[in-house]
């Protein structure tokens, strides 16, 4: 069989992927087989962990909650054994975004699951939720308002067909609202009104923008919204949540007075424990945005993660679009960035260890390319210290498709592409990325130096020879001799790297 036929056969073979959602209330896992674009759900698992309830006032995760979470991930990990690296994506949401000790927990969580666990920012969570929900409802009505109420945050998205246009993640969640207003399971008229008012106050800064944008159909996602639909007495998933239904439920929970006296159709004991909090959030949303009816989707974040993961496996990586959007927004010189990226990629080929998972999955090359494309993003602020400005932007901007770890890696590469080689910044990265990040930084620094003249026709005839004790930049015997400024730059770079115990030699001819 020819190579091209073999490649097509591999692409046509069914692929199994999985998504794990470490939510603030529940952990979910979905395993999906992709058979030539037709998705078949192979398995689903869900456990109530209530991670948000274990987050203290100083944002420390208590031991009992962490142990529950890790035990759950070990069970999920047993189901995921045998799935290839890169075919599983596990994401943490609001509670892990807020936790002070998140990094230590994530290391233990990754070990328990057997796959990396990463934290995503709120706007990225909203984008993924939208990508999951639009697979289910609203195909006939292109403009959608999607609401997802989690344990610690609520995501609101207005999108046109497949493209999110207005995206927010706000600090409103069913678990958090329960803790703030219904402590001890007691429900009074006063606490109920306070919980709804608090939701409306939180929504006030964004409500007008959403009302002005408008939508054709409102869609709710997540366990809280689904339980509210069931509690209204709905017999079918095609029915809707209405303001009248929410008011009736509000009266019912106030009348019950306590959680243990609530008797709601189709609401499990686990869900009942946070039901008033979720109901208060949705009631506040309806009142703030003027929603008249809401359909309910069975899909949410995990389905969006699966769609995004399959895109990565089929060369439709949303992160590439996020990088290009950032380049456009900050007016990056794309031609220069592409030249640097091309040379950096070629130099990395002399470094690469094909046995490394990051190389095998293509992540090393992609990360290097994105860093090269964005290495001058800080010029939008100032030329002086622009690598530091670039780091700040990339650590704090909303980059489509990127997790918090992805952005930290990208920001570190951009920070270190010039100036002092800060080994401490590399040591601050996850352990599994440190050695690779060191390599990526070195080739990016060299590529930037080689293209400092911004000559559009320049293709430096050089390559690296990497030894145990030194790195040699070698090439045409006359090339460097004809470029004394480049040689001076490389000599200065050798001094900077030498301070970090990295020996660079650039005068040896090939």
What does this molecule look like?
- By secondary structure, the protein is α/β, with parallel strands linked by helices.
- The protein folds into three domains: 3-120 and 304-308, ATPase, nucleotide binding domain (Nucleotidyltransferase, domain 5); 137-298, Exopolyphosphatase. Domain 2 (Nucleotidyltransferase, domain 5, 2-Layer Sandwich); 317-505, Hypothetical protein af1432 (Orthogonal Bundle), CATH 1.10.3210.10.
- It has 21 helices and 13 strands.
- α8 (223-231) packs across α11 (275-289) and α16 packs across α20.
- It holds the Pfam family Ppx-GppA.
- InterPro entries: ATPase_NBD, GppA/Ppx_hydrolase, Ppx_GppA_C, Ppx_GppA_N, PyroPPase_GppA_Ppx.
Keywords:
510 residues; Nucleotidyltransferase, domain 5; Hypothetical protein af1432; five-stranded mixed β-sheet; 49% helix; elongated; disordered N terminus; Ppx/GppA phosphatase
Could you outline the blueprint of secondary structure elements for this entry?
Blueprint: H1 3-12, E1 15-22, E2 26-35, E3 38-48, H2 63-80, E4 88-92, H3 94-98, H4 102-113, E5 117-119, H5 122-133, E6 143-149, E7 154-160, E8 163-170, H6 174-181, H7 189-213, E9 217-221, H8 223-231, H9 243-256, H10 269-272, H11 275-289, E10 295-296, H12 301-313, H13 318-329, H14 334-348, H15 357-360, H16 363-374, H17 386-396, H18 404-415, H19 423-427, H20 434-450, E11 462-466, E12 471-475, H21 484-498, E13 504-505
Parallel strand pairs: 1-4, 4-5, 6-9, 9-10, 12-13
Antiparallel strand pairs: 1-2, 2-3, 6-7, 7-8, 11-12
Helix pairs in contact: 2-4, 5-12, 6-11, 7-11, 8-11, 9-11, 13-16, 14-16, 14-20, 16-18, 16-20, 17-18, 18-20, 20-21
């Amino acid at each position: 069989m020819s190579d091209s036929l073999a490649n097509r056969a591999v692409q046509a073979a069914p692929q199994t992927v999985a998504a794990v959602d470490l939510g603030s209330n529940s952990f979910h896992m979905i395993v999906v087989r992709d058979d030539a674009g037709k998705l078949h759900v192979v398995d689903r698992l869900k456990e109530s962990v209530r991670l948000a309830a274990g987050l203290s006032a100083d944002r420390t995760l208590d031991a009992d909650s962490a142990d529950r979470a890790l035990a759950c991930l070990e069970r999920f990990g047993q189901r995921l054994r045998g799935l290839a690296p890169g075919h599983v994506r596990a994401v943490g949401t609001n509670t892990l975004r807020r936790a002070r000790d998140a990094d230590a927990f994530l290391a233990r969580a990754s070990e328990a699951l057997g796959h990396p666990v990463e934290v995503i920012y709120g706007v990225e969570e909203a984008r993924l939720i939208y990508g999951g929900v639009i697979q289910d409802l609203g195909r006939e009505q292109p403009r959608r308002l999607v609401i997802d109420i989690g344990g610690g945050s609520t995501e609101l998205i207005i999108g046109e067909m497949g493209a999110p246009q207005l995206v927010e993640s706000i600090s409103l969640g069913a678990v958090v609202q329960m803790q703030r207003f219904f402590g001890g399971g007691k429900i009074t008229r006063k606490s109920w009104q306070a919980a709804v008012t608090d939701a409306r106050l939180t929504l006030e800064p964004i409500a007008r923008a959403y009302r002005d944008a408008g939508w054709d159909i409102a869609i709710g996602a997540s366990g809280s919204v689904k339980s509210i639909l069931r509690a209204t007495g709905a017999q079918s998933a095609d029915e809707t949540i209405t303001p009248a239904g929410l008011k009736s439920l509000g009266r019912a929970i106030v009348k019950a007075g306590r959680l243990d006296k609530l008797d709601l159709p189709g609401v499990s004991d686990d869900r009942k424990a946070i039901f008033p909090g979720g109901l208060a959030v949705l009631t506040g949303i309806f009142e703030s945005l003027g929603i008249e009816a809401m359909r309910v989707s069975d899909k949410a974040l995990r389905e969006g993660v699966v769609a995004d993961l399959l895109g990565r496996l089929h060369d439709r990586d949303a992160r590439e679009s996020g990088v290009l959007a950032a380049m456009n927004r900050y007016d990056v010189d794309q031609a220069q960035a592409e030249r640097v990226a091309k040379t950096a990629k070629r130099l990395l080929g002399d470094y690469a260890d094909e046995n490394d998972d990051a190389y095998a999955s293509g992540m090393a090359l992609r990360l290097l390319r994105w860093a090269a494309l964005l290495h001058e993003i800080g010029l939008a602020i100032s030329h002086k210290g622009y690598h530091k400005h670039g780091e700040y932007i990339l650590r704090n901007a909303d980059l489509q498709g990127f997790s918090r770890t992805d952005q930290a890696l990208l920001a570190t590469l951009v920070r270190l592409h010039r100036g002092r080689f800060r080994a401490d910044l590399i040591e601050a990265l996850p352990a599994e990325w440190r050695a690779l990040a060191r390599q990526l930084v070195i080739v990016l620094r060299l590529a930037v130096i080689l293209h400092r003249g911004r000559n559009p026709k320049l293709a430096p005839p050089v390559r690296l020879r990497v030894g145990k004790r030194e790195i040699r930049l070698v090439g045409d015997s006359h090339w460097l001799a004809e470029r004394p400024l480049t040689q001076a730059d490389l000599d200065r770079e050798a001094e900077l790297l030498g301070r970090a115990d990295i020996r660079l030699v650039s005068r040896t001819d090939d």
